[in-house]
Batch of 4 targets.
Target 1
Amino acid sequence: MSRPIDPFNEPVTMTHAAQPSRLVAFLELLVFVGFAWGSKLVVDQIIWKFSGPITLITTLVLLTIYMRYRGESWAGMGLRALPGWKSKLLILPQALLAIVAIIAAGALLTYGGDALGFWDADAEPVGVADRFAGIEGNLSVYLTWMAVIWTSAAFGEEMFFRGFLITRFERVVAGIPFAVGAAVILAALIFGAGHFYYQGIRGLVVVAAIGVVIGSLFLLYKRNLWPLILAHGLVDTLGMTARYLNLDV
């Protein structure tokens, strides 16, 4: 009997089973993106504030089970052990570069859209205010959102929207001009759409642009998710801490 595969640490053996065909990759995208979207619509009716994190984590659990059945692992999608101390030391500067890029992309699209008259950069979307209402000065609410940030947002979103979606979209669009770029953009559009429910059209556009930036860094960093997870978590932590302290930033 073969040794069981650890879905997080075992390197992928590039067997036929571990390389889905174009059709299989398309069906996987259809099923798992569809499940995440559809289940969220259901959970919205029960616990709207946390429907996104709940359904994303559920989707990742099912996806991990499916990948294990196929003989794949998250290591093959960027959540891999880093060889040597040099690669580990690179995580911090790579994360810092990602933080600057994320903030710059968000500011550029937010204020660029304001300058073009698409939205008011100083007016917070109603859904954002409703979702995070009550966090100012409330430590328990703040810590709850910190837990969500470092599980669903930092790990969950990077694993799903960068590791899984980009990898699978590459299989689907393989052979067309600029296939890798197309995969990054398609994954970013779904990433932006996933934030529409509480950020509206402005959030969709801004988050999709940030998704393009993070997806590009995913490729630049040789498909290593660790600096992106760290950067994503820190950027969201800064934003949530500013809300908790009621800072006008």
Note: The mean pLDDT is 91.
Target 2
Amino acid sequence: MSRQLRYQVAVSLDGFIAGPNGEFDWIVMDPAIDFSALYKEFDTAVMGRKTYDAGLAQGASGAMPGIEVVVFSRTLAPSTRKGLSIVTGDAPEAVAALKAKPGRDIWLFGGGALFRSLLDAGLVDSVEVAVMPVLLGAGVPLLPPGHPAKLVFNEQKTLPASGIVMLSYAVPGSGGSAPPIRYIKTDGTGKKSRPARKPAAAAKRRRPKTKRAATARR
């Protein structure tokens, strides 16, 4: 199976992925999210220059642990160093080349303009958003104006401790699919998540003993 390009991002309830000045200090943290497990699903991340600059402005180095970061920019000079490359060429063409290489999935980290260009090029395989219980009122939209795109629902998880709702959708026509949400380590109360009990199995355990079985135990 080829690598998937996954738009994996936090979003406010009113549809913004960053504040008016690119800030992301509004993002709610939840101990149920296993970020180590999440990072292991990717070996490459792609982002736009504004997302990269916003991270630098808030103290991030631009690099991500265990992940090769590719920044697309028309204004920054092209460069390459360990874990980080700045690319000035055509983003859809470069991302298509990345998808053709072997490896783990590719994290479309942001921002909205890059998402729009890659979505229009048919390269985005899934849209996976963590909806924060926050209203920003203004900021960077999840997706700039353009052609509409229908999505196919894959999975939903709610984290009761924080109120975060995780949503996963596949993008039809991309040839890819949305993976399950595997990086939730607890149910939000500190307890490990457990799969729902199957109704048939539960009914079997509740089935009353037969008269024959009761006689045999005497």
Note: The radius of gyration is 21 Å.
Target 3
Amino acid sequence: MPIDYAPLSRQGLSAQIADSLREAITSGELSADDRLPSESELAGRFGVSRPTVREALKRLAAQNLIRTKRGAAGGAFVNRISWEDAYDQIITTSTLMISMHAVDFETMAEARFAQERACLPLAIARREANHLATMQAEILRQQQATLSDEAFCASDVAFHRALVDAAQNPVLSYQLAGAVEAMQPLMNMITFKARDRSEIVRLHSALHAAFEAQDLEQAQRALDSLAAYTTTLAAQISATIAARSSA
């Protein structure tokens, strides 16, 4: 599919140009490392000014779809993106969307645990020694009495990151990055003062044991227990806040 140089409406010109170029990239007309037409060429073909084209290219660069290079061999090039490179983008986007739209705790918990449950069958079947070692190392960290709340929360995220990565499916890891590394830290911020660390360690240990034995049913029960404990904590915290407000 060639780049669509059809006449543009006069509203949102840079957005329309970015849409046309994005479509050319996602359709495969422009491949990774291909050079885009120059700003002057794009301006002539779309019938717009170079600053308008420049704004469109900035939109694509912000989405990590293109990169720019200066010099005689420079220009704008289609980015070659790996799944790992895209993780930070989805984590940042998910965090902003959750924070700005005030998604409630129950919605976050429902989404996060539903995605982790869907990941479990593959993770149990494909886990390797490094995934088990990471999970065990984080459990040992979480047992340290001197571990700060911030470090405990970071260890909690790392434990579940290992669980997800054990599925060894880059698409799942990418999709779950937002759930584990965006939603989970925000959930931890709400519950960390009320939760019992020993209970988290107990449930994480049950998950690790299930992974070690490759016992899917045991893993599902442990994750369901963790989900129930997390939502119960949130309900208790909400009730406490409501009681203080009405006092």
Note: The mean pLDDT is 86.
Target 4
Amino acid sequence: MKIRVGIARALAGRPHIVLLDEPTAGLDPPTARAICELGIKMRDLRDVSSIFVTHGLENLNYLTSTYTCIDEKGEAVFMKEDDRLCLINTKIMMLREGRSIFYGSDEELFKLEDPYIRDFLLVE
């Protein structure tokens, strides 16, 4: 609940960008999913850019493959990108020892042959 309150406080000023540093750390999966959904809503419905720092591959997969839109009832609905033509504007930056070793899309990340990155992707 503290994380949600912190995000709400940050959004009260109508920012253009928000930093979320490990917002799902130590949370149960449903609560972590709810925090990711807040990030997706900020991106898709409020046009707020966010830097979402995470070590969780499940968060990365969800944030880069899910979008939200408003249905005919006026409610936010989460959709999977799948084979739909959807331009989710999410980029991934991977750091190692303070240096960027990757910047790009999730599709590009999972195609890399770099041993360090492959080990990280397989650990999860």
Note: Residues 91-124 form one domain.
